[in-house]
Amino acid sequence: MSADYDVLIIGAGIAGEESALKLADMGFKVLLVEKEPSIGGKMILLSKVFPTLDCAACITTPKVSETARHPNITLFTLTEPESIIKEVDNTFSITLKKRPRYVVEQDCTGCQECETVCPSVVHDQFQMNLVARKAVYIPFNIANPRIALIDIDNCMLCGACEQKCPSNAIDFTQKEQIISVKVKSVIVATGFKLFDPIHIERYGYGKYKNVITSMQMERQLAPTRPFNNILRPSDGKVPDKIAYVFCTGSRDHTIGNPICSQVCCMYSIKQSQLLMGALPMADISMYYINIRAFGKGFNEFYMQAKDMGANFVKGKIASISEKENGNLILRYENIETGEVSESEHDLVVLSVGLLANSSVTKAFKNKILKTDEINYVKQTNLLQSPAITSIEGVFAAGTATAPMDIPDTIMSAGAAAAEVSGYLNQLS
Amino acid sequence: MKKKIGVYVCHCGGNISDYVDIEKVKEAVKEEADVYLVKNTLFACSDSSQKEIEHDIQESELDAIVVASCSPKLHVPTFRGVAQRAGLNPYNYVQANIREQSSWAHSDNPVGATEKAIQLVKAAIAKARESEALTPVKIPAVNVAAVIGGGIGGLRSAISLAEMGTEVYLIEKESKIGGHIAQWDKLFTSNDKGSDIINSLYSQILKHTNIKIFTNAEVIEKTGSIGNFNIKVKIDKEILPLHVGAVIVNTGFESYQPLQSEYGYNVLENVITLPDFKNLIEKSDKELIHNGKIIKKVAYIYCVGSRQDDEGENKYCSRYCCTAAIHVAIEAKQKYRNIINFHYNRGIRTYGKQELLYEESCKNGDIYIQFNLENKPQIEVVKGKTLIKVKDILTAGKEITAEVDLIVLVTGMISRKDDTLINTLKIPVGRDNFYNEIHMKLRPVETVIDGVFIAGTCQSPKNILETLNSSQAAAAKANSVLTKGEMTLEPTLAQINPASCILCENCRNACPFDAIMTVNYEDRQVAKVNVSNCKGCGMCTPVCPTDAIDLAGFTNPQIEGMIDALVN
Question: Is 0.90 exceeded by the ipTM?
Fold first, then answer.
């Protein structure tokens, strides 16, 4: 059986990168596709990681660069699979849709001159909408590839960038490309979606300016942060009484996600430690149901946050209301005292959960990629070969299968690489 | 010879530039001899910065580069790669660590941090000035791995290695393979039987002719390096030498054994551990019977041996026990009529999808009572009745007393105390007594010993799914290293000038890696370095009375140059 690539890996976050690098090192030809304009997934946007407090950008960039330049890895950004068909000879016929960048990849030097002249200003999604970007933009400073793209929906077609570009890289004539390839196997590494707290009206996200998500706080704490300080959105004040609302969008049937998201307790505790470092005078309260500090070094890290002065309150936040000065009143039952209480904070961080990102299942046309009851890719041989899915030759890695943290993702991606290698050897 | 050196000073986002004045560093080093250009960069490791450095090397024909950034542990390979791609010998690259050694260490003193950074960069420039082109040593590697431990993790690693084309020696200390799981009945999340899973994996093992199993076997010696380890395995009374390229340690855990009288253990006959209770359920048929008594009310006391206070040394959470206890409680409820489960917990940690089991147990009517370490459950026997008294956090500290028939201590995982293996393999052990990986986040199955990998619960408590993932990840990593058939060794090795050697044996005595051998040179015997054993640690260099030994990449002129730069 012949094919263009040994394996197609869908998603170039840390799971996809890890699987790709392992297989490429073994000598297999890998096609890695990513729907965003940069690889690196969610991790590249994080501040520091628990419980080691390693700088996320510093530890993920080597992996990102290695992925981008490995001779056995072919990488397409802005690309998603349209259809995946399993053929009778066990190969997969893949149709990929590559969205136009409107910038010639080879010619762009990443100088950002185009950004200076673009008149269209929109929310920067990679800074979680905390600040603005231009319609022509480089996704973020450590993006890979670090080249511009044009957000055509927000572009006025004024041509200013085209005139300014010193290397004539702007090309408005680019069209969507359809690419057909044949591969021998597939890894689904499509990651997770963050819960959008707009769905919990009583928390006022989107209505009260000083209610933000943990990912927005993550950006404020990151080395490539937008403000160089922690600021609350309503008036740019440095907050001094911060609340964390745990389990926002997790363990909650009302929004359809009954499971625990596995990482939010720990990232919230990590943020509390970073905040206590950045704002030594600030009070930080953590409103939780149970603290899930289960992994290596996690419980010790939780104890450390307590010792540093974070105030842990056992009680699920029932509702949030806003005062005229932008401060927020949190109402909850304090489980340890048995009383219904209210407390005032000047910034509220919602510890949002992880949701399954299973849109890729639609691309499988003649075989069904099964999902479980909460829409994660189903692991059909869970306690023997966790990477195996309902389709022979299709494997799953990382948070496509369940919520998990970075080390678990790396190990799951390694396991998927082992399965693919074994599968390919047995084919030949 | 005069060199052209390029120096790059990294902001590391703000990790360095928040405390070290980057402009001052640039200014201070630009006049150093041989420095051709100095630049600053937001993230030197980012792809665009790497490309810029490559461009500079070619454009300005640089002979050496210095990057002043973070610890060399992470990024020396990154920047050596940059040099190589630009056509510069990678060993003409020197890294100055101005993050861990300056900005992070002296965040309270930015002026001092900046001064120290300047000295460190000057020292690195001095080293770069004396740097020489080196060529890595290539030696053949065998595509064979030893997997130590024949539990579920070891079996999984072995099968995956064999499927990928690596030959496997599976080494098990006990007389039978299968570990803990072979003895367990239904397992959480899938309800598969432990023995079925082990049998299924075992039958896969039998299909592979390239897996050899040794039971009653123990690794007692290891020499050599990645790609070429020589290990000795003691099987009963015989010693078997094996030649392997990598070792995967998958030796598992031990169940915590409660102390004498901990919650009445070994004192009251109706206090047992979680593994005992799992066995009891498997063996009891229509009624749940313990010591001849029918059991209706079961109390589970959580975190026994885990998350301990000052009296115990286990500060960690054992990860699997909350879910395991709840799963067994659900099973008891399904199997026997009228069972009532009381869960005395310290905050239930059914993370991820395991939450669904917690929910099921709550729907079953199980009673959850939460305590903290200051108020542990008190057990007393009054007129033959076993009573548990505790202040319940979930009802605002109300004191609750319940009469129960059986108390199950939900015991956690502890590391195996295997000193022979620790001494043989020299894997570092963490504060929690489990083996430590080289990098917790991104290299969770590798250790500081190249070619020695860890997987499963010998690294930290894990459930079965997590054990399988790490076991396969270790297999993938080992195979990706060995499958090329050759190993590239660092050329930073000791070299002995035979003309000056007087064979005093000092270097042999100093060498921790058994890398000094004796050869003939001009009718006399001299010492010579065995490159496949040498790690370039430098222990032999200072003890040589005739200065016959130098370490490539860390030569005397380089070290002296660095010292001069630091003290000037």
Answer: yes
Task: Kindly state whether A223 is in contact with chain B, defined as any CB-CB distance less than 8 angstroms.
Answer: yes
- Region of residue B183 (phi > 0: left; psi between -120 and 50: alpha; otherwise: beta): alpha
A129 at interface of B, judged by CB pairs closer than 8 A: no
Q: State yes or no: pLDDT of B45 exceeds 90.
A: no
pLDDT at B1: 64
HEC letters along B237-261: CEEEEEEECEEEECCCEEECCCCCC
Domain boundaries, chain A: 5-98+176-191+357-427, 100-174, 195-354
DSSP letter string, A6-73: EEEEE--SHHHHHHHHHHHHTT--EEEE-SSSSSSTTGGG-SEETTTTEEHHHHHHHHHHHHHH-TTE
Please report how the helices B464-482 and B152-164 are oriented relative to each other, as an axis angle in degrees rounded to 10: 30
What number of residues does chain B have? 568
CATH architecture of A5-98+176-191+357-427: 3-Layer(bba) Sandwich (3.50)
CA angle B551, B99, A297 (to 5 degrees): 95
The answer for A 256-285 residues in CB contact with B (under 8 A) is 258-262
Topology agreement, domain A100-174 and domain A195-354: no
Identity (one letter) of the amino acid at B502? I
Are residues A110 and B397, on separate chains, in Cβ contact within 8 Å?
no
Burial annotation A147-184 (CB, 10 A radius, 16+ → b, else e): bbbbbeebbeeeebbbebbeeebbeeebeeeebebbbb
User: Max alpha carbon distance in chain A (Å)?
Assistant: 70
Please tell me which of the candidates B315, B393, B439 has its beta carbon nearest to residue A299.
Answer: B315
Q: Indicate the CATH number for domain A100-174.
A: 3.30.70.20
Mean pLDDT of B317-344: 96
Partners of A314 on chain B (C-beta within 8 Å) are 393
A384 vs B contacts (CB less than 8 Å): 156, 197, 200-201, 468
Q: Which of A26, A262, A294 to mutate to test the interface with B (most CBs of B within 10 A)?
A: A294
Name residues 23-62 of chain A within 8 A of B (Cβ).
Answer: 25-27, 49, 51-52, 54-55, 57-62
Residues 318-357 of A with CB under 8 A from B: 335-339
Task: Give the residue from chain A lying closest to B322, CA to CA.
Answer: A294
Report pLDDT for B116.
Answer: 96
Measured between CA atoms, the residue of chain A closest to residue B48 is: A146
Best of B303, B353, B392, B453 to substitute, by most chain A Cβ atoms within 10 angstroms, is B353
Q: What is the mean pLDDT of chain A?
A: 96
**pLDDT value of position B486:** 92
Q: Which amino acid does the sequence have at B510? A: A
In Å, how far is B372's CA from the nearest CA of chain A? 11
Query: Is the CB of residue B495 less than 8 Å away from at least one CB of chain A?
Result: no
What is the mean pLDDT of each successive set of 10 residues along chain A, which is 428 residues long?
94 98 98 98 96 91 91 98 97 98 92 95 97 97 93 97 94 97 98 98 97 98 90 96 98 97 98 96 97 96 97 97 98 96 98 95 97 96 97 98 98 98 93
**pLDDT value for B389:** 97
Specify the 3-state DSSP secondary structure of A412: helix
Domain A195-354 CATH assignment equals 3.40.630.30 = no
Q: Could you give the domains of chain B?
A: 5-134 (3.40.50), 144-253+415-486 (3.50.50.60), 256-412 (3.50.50.60), 490-552 (3.30.70.20)
Contact A59 B442 (CB under 8 A): yes
Would you call the peptide bond into A145 cis, given omega within 30 degrees of 0 as the criterion? yes
CB-CB under 8 Å, B45 with A228: no
Residues B475, A418: C-beta atoms closer than 8 Å: yes
Minimum-distance CB partner of A291 among B12, B347, B466: B347
